[in-house]
């Protein structure tokens, strides 16, 4: 008799379930842009669309570092526009635009500083802090401390063909209950939140069994492509993502809530702990 085929031992893959967290304010990063200031030639204003389930404030920083509580801190360099803050009320699909006269003139800065790449420096050309109104109280050394949750968007600029500049988002950070979470894109999760699961929709089912809805994401490549049952079996057959064939480090099961306030293609991860999801 021929010898039995060799047994391939695949590395152990940890299967986790996501934990929900609350995200009170969401800046839609695809809408973040610079618009000309009609009353100040050569100056540009920050504009974007955002959702808020509570009232709060928005602060615009130019050339800022990430400081305490993840809050941007201005470098206070000569000629920089000072941080500008406006308040907002709760509501979905709100439009934000800096008031005239508070923007930035790109000609005042070296192009290399405007076009930085992620990881090149700790100073970001543009930072937007969207802070929710006080959401609770904590006791600290016998005193009550107000807890504020916020979303910080760090960005640089890209040169356009016409010589102007557009915004390039580098990262978005959630500061929730004194913990830092960095938003990461999850590929394929959008198909899982567009209404109820329909077995006739080829974009929603597990790529392995082709019948159950997708609810499990492969990390670190972030492809949401399997149902939880197939994901449990996957580790006995391969250690590669079914989509891109990259090695699997973890599997994250995400139960989608269609009322989520965070964009379906972005979910936060806290460094050193299981990823969490906003509700």
UniProtKB/TrEMBL annotation:
Enzyme class: transferase
Catalytic activity reported: S-ubiquitinyl-[E2 ubiquitin-conjugating enzyme]-L-cysteine + [acceptor protein]-L-lysine = [E2 ubiquitin-conjugating enzyme]-L-cysteine + N(6)-ubiquitinyl-[acceptor protein]-L-lysine
Pathway this chain belongs to: Protein modification; protein ubiquitination
This protein's record includes keyword Zinc: yes
GO BP: protein ubiquitination
EC number(s) stated in the UniProt entry for this protein: 2.3.2.27
GO molecular function: ubiquitin protein ligase activity; zinc ion binding
InterPro entries referenced in this protein's UniProt entry, alphabetically: LOG2-like_mRING_C3HC5 (IPR045195), MGRN1/RNF157-like (IPR045194), MGRN1/RNF157-like_N (IPR058981), Znf_RING (IPR001841), Znf_RING/FYVE/PHD (IPR013083)
Ranges for domain RING-type: 206-245
Segments of skewed composition (Polar residues): 258-272
Transmembrane regions: none
Keywords from the UniProt entry: Lipoprotein, Metal-binding, Myristate, Transferase, Ubl conjugation pathway, Zinc, Zinc-finger
UniProt region (Disordered), positions on chain: 258-279
Entry similarity comment: Belongs to the RING-type zinc finger family. LOG2 subfamily.
Protein's name in the database: RING-type E3 ubiquitin transferase
Taxonomic path: Eukaryota, Viridiplantae, Streptophyta, Embryophyta, Tracheophyta
């Amino acid at each position: 008799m021929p010898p039995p085929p060799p047994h391939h031992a695949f590395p152990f893959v940890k299967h986790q379930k996501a934990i929900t967290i609350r995200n009170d304010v969401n800046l839609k990063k695809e809408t973040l842009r610079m618009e000309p200031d009609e009353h100040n030639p050569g100056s540009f204003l920050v504009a974007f669309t955002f959702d808020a389930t509570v009232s709060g404030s928005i602060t615009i920083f130019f050339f800022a570092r990430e400081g305490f509580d993840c809050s941007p801190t201005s470098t206070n360099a000569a000629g920089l526009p000072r941080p500008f803050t406006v308040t907002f009320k709760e509501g979905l699909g709100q439009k934000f635009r800096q008031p005239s006269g508070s923007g930035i003139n790109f000609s005042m800065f070296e192009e290399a500083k405007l076009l930085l790449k992620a990881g090149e420096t700790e100073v970001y050309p543009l930072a937007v802090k969207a802070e929710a109104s006080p959401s609770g109280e904590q006791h600290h050394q016998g005193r009550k401390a107000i807890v504020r949750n916020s979303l910080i968007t760090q960005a640089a600029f890209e040169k356009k063909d016409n010589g102007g500049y557009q915004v390039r988002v580098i990262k978005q950070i959630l500061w929730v209950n004194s913990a830092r979470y960095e938003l990461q894109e999850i590929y394929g999760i959008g198909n899982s939140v567009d209404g109820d699961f329909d077995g006739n929709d080829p974009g929603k089912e597990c790529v392995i069994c082709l019948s159950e809805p997708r609810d499990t994401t492969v990390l670190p490549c972030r492809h949401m492509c399997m149902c939880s049952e197939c994901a449990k079996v996957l580790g006995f057959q391969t250690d590669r993502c079914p989509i891109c064939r990259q090695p699997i480090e973890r599997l994250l099961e995400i139960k989608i809530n269609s009322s989520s306030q965070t964009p379906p293609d972005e979910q936060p991860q806290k460094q050193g702990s299981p990823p969490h999801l906003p509700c």
